[in-house]
Amino acid sequence: MSAGQHATDSHGGILRTFFSIVVMVAFVLGLSWALRTFVFTAYEIPSGSMEETIMTGDMVFAEKVSYYFRDPEPGDIVTFTDPEIPGRTLIKRCIATAGQTINITGDGILYIDGVAQSETYTHGKPTLPLSNSSITFPYTVPQGHIWVMGDNRTNSQDSRYFGAVPTSSVTGRGVLVYWPVSEFGVLE
């Protein structure tokens, strides 16, 4: 083999390796984008509105696949586009769906369709109307909407403040706290 042949083979091998690396990086970036867009998204929780279920600073995965096949249901922890600040995502619990009537009275108990709710995830915190809101009760959730509330009822601006949110604004279902490791677990 001549010296010229060896240089050409070596140069072609370097180009093939470079091309393989570029293709691999493009594939990983494309797969990452597809997973984030269509399957799941990670969020860092900036406030205490879902405490004790989700703590400030926790990192949470929200999956998107469920809502391709069904609408949010009461009890689901949902991520959705903030109705007041476009581009910002909020996380709250779905409390009621279209056609259900919410009533919040001075006794601190939430009523849905006239039935007092037992909500262990609120840890006994009262559910009261917000004084800075124009929402009045009883309130019937309109078609195509859900009623959402934070589990920390004494520290959450939620549907009591901004009303029901369109199901079309729901971006995922909170399923897992993955950080810190001490809080790792499935959301319920």
UniProtKB/TrEMBL annotation:
SUPFAM superfamilies in the record: LexA/Signal peptidase
Coiled-coil positions: none
Topology versus the membrane: Single-pass type II membrane protein
Keyword Protein transport belongs to the record: no
Enzyme class: hydrolase
PROSITE patterns noted in UniProt: SPASE_I_3
Keywords associated with the record: Hydrolase, Membrane, Protease, Transmembrane, Transmembrane helix
InterPro entries from the UniProt entry: LexA/Signal_pep-like_sf, Pept_S26A_signal_pept_1, Pept_S26A_signal_pept_1_CS, Peptidase_S26
Keyword Transferase (UniProt): no
Name of the protein described by the UniProt record: Signal peptidase I
Natural source organism: Senegalimassilia faecalis
